[in-house]
Each structure stands twice: as structure tokens, then as C-alpha cells.
User: What shape does this take?
Amino acid sequence: MPSKLKERKIAIMGYRSVGKSSLSIQFVEGQFVDSYDPTIENTFVKTTKVSNQEYELKLVDTAGQDEYSILPTHYDIHGYVLVYSIASPKSFEIIQIIYDKLLDMTGNVHLPIVLVGNKKDLHMDRVVTQEEGRKLADSWKAVFLEASAKQNECVADIFHTMLMEIEKANNPVPNPGPVTCSIS
Ligand SMILES: Nc1nc2c(ncn2[C@@H]2O[C@H](COP(=O)(O)OP(=O)(O)OP(=O)(O)O)[C@@H](O)[C@H]2O)c(=O)[nH]1
Assistant: This one.
């Protein structure tokens, strides 16, 4: 018997211009837009299936944050996708500040988080190594992925992994197995 549709809300956070909107649009609409249009706040909705469970996924694409930003408050967020660009050291610095603020804001010691190093297609401009990203995610006990919204690499994995992390947080069960794009 098919299980009931579950509703899940995910916030996508990170420094300006790291590709939060591009990842959302790639996942929801299957396209990449090369122009840059700063986001105020946008919500995307998509139904998707993971491990035989149907989800209605609401993606809250937030306005880019910096070290001085007050994080947007939503009380019904199930998980957080934290994005930096592998070509921007500043965005990697900021993601750590955002993480600290998130823990402060929610009062939780552990949140379902997927850390994403986006723009992995920009090989020549890489300044944040895979190792640095993985280490940071390990320190948070979060999942780490590198992705490219431009080349649609590992984009669906981000959101599917996020849903699995939320499931795990809600009812700890044995790990369903590795995801192709996760780096551990
Ligand atoms: N090469 C490359 N460029 C990307 C990728 N993802 C996004 N971009 C580009 O980076 C710029 C910023 O992308 P956005 O998706 O608007 O970034 P954002 O994080 O939503 O930006 P804010 O709304 O300011 O927070 C745009 O010019 C995109 O085309 C990627 O994977 N590879």
C-alpha cells in the first residue's frame, strides 16, 4: 500500500551568489540560468519520492547571508541545506558563522544538515578543497556533497539526502546505505 504523502520544509542558506537559487531551480525546474538575480526569499514546491516514500518538499531559498545577517526565522523547518562555493573562501568562512547562528537560534545541538560545496565545475578557480569541506561536515555530524547546479551534478542527491537525514533525525533507523555523491 502506498504510504501517505509527507510534507517537509527545507531552508537553503549560505553567502550571496553561492548558487542557492540555481540549485533550487535546477532541482525543481531542471534548468540552469546563468544570470545573477539576488534573491529576497522564494519558496519552491516539488513532490519527490525517496525510498518508496512520496514527499511534498517546500524549499525556502533564502536571501544570501553574511557575517552580520540575522537569520530568517521559520519555525517549521525540518532540515537545512548549507551552501558555499568551492571558488569562494569567504563563502566557506560565512557558512561556519551561519551554522553557529543556526544552533543558537534553534537551541538544538544537532540539526539535520547537508553541507554543499557548489560550483564544482569551476576546477580552475577551486580554493576550498574537498577535504576541508568534508572535515567541516564531520565536525557537525552532517552529510557533505559537492555539486554543480550548472552541470546538474549531484543536485537531486542534495535534496534526497536531506530527506533521509530528516527521517533519521525523526526516528533513528539503520542507515539505508551510501549515496553515490556523498564524500566520506
Ligand atoms: N559555474 C557555476 N556557476 C554557478 C553555479 N551555480 C550558480 N552559479 C552562478 O552563480 C551566480 C549566483 O547564483 P545564484 O543561484 O543566484 O546564487 P544565490 O546563492 O541564490 O545568490 P543570492 O540570491 O544573492 O543569495 C549566477 O551567475 C549563477 O549562474 C554552478 O554550479 N557553477
In short: Residues 14, 16-22, 34, 36, 38-39, 63-64, 118-119, 121-122, 148-150 surround guanosine-5'-triphosphate (CB under 6 Å).
